[in-house]
Amino acid sequence: MTIHHTKGIVLRTVKYGETSVIVTIYTELFGIQSYLVNGVRSSSKKGSGKANMFQPAAILDMQVYHNELKNLQRIKEFRWAFIYQHIFFDVVKNAAALFMVELLQKTLKQPESNPDLYHFIEDAFLHLDEARGQAIANFPLFFALHLATIYGFRLNDDYTENTPYLDLQEGAFTAEHPVHPHFLGMPYSYITSQLLKVMQPQELNEIPLNQETRRILLQGYQTFYALHVPDFGILKTLPVLQEVLS
């Protein structure tokens, strides 16, 4: 079987047997994949150290076996592709990272390669790790909006004073108050427009938001995803993130 070299971002790890794990990883080469990894949970220090490498949001450099016909693949070798300075230890950054991971779990369904999406996600985690000040708390908002753009159900940034309502069902700003409840009015529509204009994550420092505003925006964006992604449900990490940001 051919061995492939790919990077990947860990999304979920489930214990399997005494010493193994099944890991869901979003890979650069093959999209979302599940891997059986043996012997990383042994009681020895060597084993437990390896298990740490499969924390959600970890970015790994891997040699993998790949068989299109199998649902469960295997990893030949793995190491850190990047070692975070803060995400695994900083409470706020970790809550933001876990929110981002859950959003990816709920939206990445097909095992297909999408290098642009992979690089956007990897870049986002690296920027979150380096983020300072307001940018940390604003990061989940930025990520949710820009991820949707790559998926192809973006919000059209056509906000004006004459179109002050953000219709989450249609994904557009409108002049008329929508007849359904799935919309954001002022000032939340305007702030969303500002967030959509952010090209570099450090620009998030220039958008000062309070806790209540972030709460309403995050709830709105969750609704937006639920309207556009089948079986999306609700984000379990959202209440935790809001508590940490309070």
Query: Which CATH class of the largest domain applies here?
Result: Mainly Alpha
**Computed CA radius of gyration, to the nearest angstrom:** 19 Å
Largest sheet: 5 strands, mixed, barrel
Helix content bin: 25-40%
Under CATH, the topology of the largest domain is which? de novo design (two linked rop proteins)
Distance between the termini: 51 Å
Shape: elongated
Treating each run of at least 4 consecutive H or I residues as one helix, how many helices? 7
CATH level 4 superfamily of the largest domain: Recombination protein O, C-terminal domain
Give me the CATH architecture of the largest domain, please. Up-down Bundle
Note the main attributes of this structure:
39% helix; five-stranded mixed beta barrel; DNA repair protein RecO; alpha+beta; RecO_C; DNA_rep/recomb_RecO_N; OB fold (Dihydrolipoamide Acetyltransferase, E2P); 246 residues; de novo design (two linked rop proteins); 2 domains; three-stranded antiparallel sheet
Word description of this protein:
This protein has about 250 residues and is an alpha+beta fold. The protein has two domains: about 1-85, Beta Barrel (OB fold (Dihydrolipoamide Acetyltransferase, E2P)); about 85-245, Recombination protein O, C-terminal domain (de novo design (two linked rop proteins), Up-down Bundle), CATH 1.20.1440. Helices cover about 40% and strands about 20% of the residues. The chain contains seven helices and eight strands. The strands form two sheets. Strands 1-2-3-5-4 form a five-stranded mixed β-barrel. Helix 2 packs antiparallel against helix 7 and helix 4 runs parallel beside helix 6. The radius of gyration is 19 Å and the shape is elongated. Keywords: DNA damage, DNA recombination, DNA repair. One of its GO terms (biological process) is double-strand break repair. Pfam families: RecO_C, RecO_N. Belongs to the RecO family.
